[in-house]
Amino acid sequence: MYKAINKIPSAPQATPATIAALRELPVSTLSDSMHRNTGTSGLRPYHRPGKLTMAGTAVTVRSRGGDNLAYLRALDFCRPGDVLVVDAGGDLNNAVVGGILSFYAASAGLAGLVVDGAIRDVAEIRERDFPLYARGVTHRGPYKDGPGEINVPVCVDGMVVHPGDIVVGDQDGLLAIPQADAESVIEKARAVVKAEAETMRAMREGRWSRESVDALEGRSNN
Asked: What CATH homologous superfamily does 5-191 map to?
């Protein structure tokens, strides 16, 4: 029998301690701790900027461009603290999410929305703190016909997201971190934060060494 939506149960959530630790770390620092070769660059934040990083367990959706039937059903698979990640193929012809549905996601306790597709009602969304990232904007509303899939691997702006990955985001962009790697990434990122703070102190006190620039240039000349 044909099913408009293929539905798979959501993956276990990351621990509250892991989420809390990631919320304190900038995405750029986390990226530095993941070899700088993953994450998005083409999706934009449309919400009001906040001080903390968005972080939550991924519930994933793959939908036809401009159709939000799978998104509507996926809300039933989301728990407070999850990030709903929608692979709409980057299509910008019709919006998948607008002001009303993003408000519902926020009121249900989601940590954020990521849409590789279009949204609308941007003026309303920009007045809210609820994190919402998207490819672009259109006034045209969605279809609601399907097909779609829930909790399958998806690709948003070139970044593969598996159900259960931890999705983090701030004004610089988005990353997906496998739960098995989270502790190591957090440890490395904290070390980077500590080193950068020391560099800033050295700059303020006029004792920042430029020898590292000589070493980098020397390496490039070989």
From this structure: Ribonuclease E inhibitor RraA/RraA-like (3.50.30.40)
* Residue 39 backbone class (left: φ over 0; alpha: ψ -120 to 50; beta: rest): left
Strand 154-156 relative to strand 95-97: parallel, antiparallel, unpaired?
unpaired
> CA-CA distance, 25 to 47, in Å (whole number)?
19
Identify any residues that bridge with 177 across adjacent strands, giving them in sequence order: 166
Average model confidence (pLDDT) across the chain: 95
**Domain ranges for the chain:** 5-191
pLDDT in tens, 45-58: 999 999 999 999 99
Q: Which residues of 144-163 are buried (b: 16+ CB within 10 A; e: fewer)?
A: eebebbbbeebebbebebbb
φ, ψ dihedrals at 68, nearest 5°: -120, 20
**What is the per-residue pLDDT for 194?**
95
